[in-house]
Queue: 3 jobs
Job 1
Amino acid sequence: MPFHQNERLPAGTIPLPSDAVTVSPELSGESFWDRLGDLTAAVASTVAAHVKAGSRPTVLSGDCLVSLGVVTGVQRAGLSPSVVWFDAHGDVHTVASSTSGYWGGLALRMVVGGDHALVGERLGLRPVPESRVTLVDARDLDPAEAEYLATSEIRRCTVTDLAVPDGPIVLHVDVDVIDSADVPGLLFPVADGPSLPAVLDAMHRITATGNVVAVDLAFPWHVSPEHEETRAELVRALVG
């Protein structure tokens, strides 16, 4: 999905594996949320078809809001997944609590039902119960996010003390969970994070269960041709 939110990314922003299939819908809505609805609906349809066919889709995009379509697609395939969410940030703002106006910071909150009328309702997303969500790392929280998580049933952990949930899993990884020193050109870099090997080890522990039904990888970084080879290596490591 060559998009960051509802904006199409220039070719090569995300170095793709050779067997990747590009899903690039036309976005006809007038508002941001209408266009995001078009985008995530295309994701949901594609993911549902792959899951129903017995394959495990891996979705690559420029930000975390695509996860709404991934979770919806798995649900359309007849499953009720848990969500394991790797991110340097919490992504649990609402429209009302966001101070930045960057709507990618709402993604996980929308997965559990926040601001449901904006996208989730039209998609047919069934909000995932908080008790079935694991938030990994989230070392950079805004005050409103910390306040919400303090009383939420969302489980929090580091990459090293992750307890893998039972049943089908949607695995979401925002590449900024990795220490910013190791990932060039991030939109929202956060220092003092886990290394790439530590993140890969945690991902492998989850996928080794055989319960991961879809993988959602977000690459929110600046368009930087000079970093293409480094980024291609990172994409290969995460996809593999």
Job 2
Amino acid sequence: MTKLFTLALVVATAAFFGLSASGLAAGNQDGERIKTGNCSRATDWKLKTKAEDNGVEVEFEVDQNRNGRVWRVVLRRNGSVVFNGIRRTRPPSGSFEINRIVPSGRITATARALATGETCRASIAA
């Protein structure tokens, strides 16, 4: 019983460290962080940051799966607006994205569908 327990402990420890090491490498390989979520209805959002030489690349994507829908989008860094504009979902996936390079900080993104009022809210530390 002791040998079996020791073997199980070794295998579990190796699996734990193997998964942790690969998870850290994937998450930190390019300094990339990704958060995803649901909007107030059926739409999904993704907020991604990636370290760049001159700041942080921010990508905010809204995927509604319907083309031609108009959204008002506001992107903020530490509370200051870095993007404020209108975007339209486009083929083939019925989505849009905003890309900006900003200094590191707290990134928040809000999108509101003009026709329905559906709202997406996302934030991430970059």
Job 3
Amino acid sequence: MDILARTRQAELALERGDVELADRLSASATRRLRRHGSIQGPEEVVFYVRSRVLTARGDSEPAAELLAEARDQLHEKAERIPDEATRRAFLENVDPNPDILAAEVTLI
């Protein structure tokens, strides 16, 4: 829960324009996630928010790597959904999945 809370705080700080605070919080959340290996929640969001923070800092290469990790996690989850319509709805309608996929397209 702490990891997702830090991620959300980082996201809010980024929206306020406080990139320094967002950087500290998202870095901490990402480190903790890597240390724990998994969480009960959307791991892809942790990587996506960290990617957004790094992009705001101008660190495009590590941002792209984390975005790819978020995208991979998202696709892994989607593959476990057997029904095509439900899978598509998961990818297209569950926040921030459409943003993760849209960001994927802009990096290509």
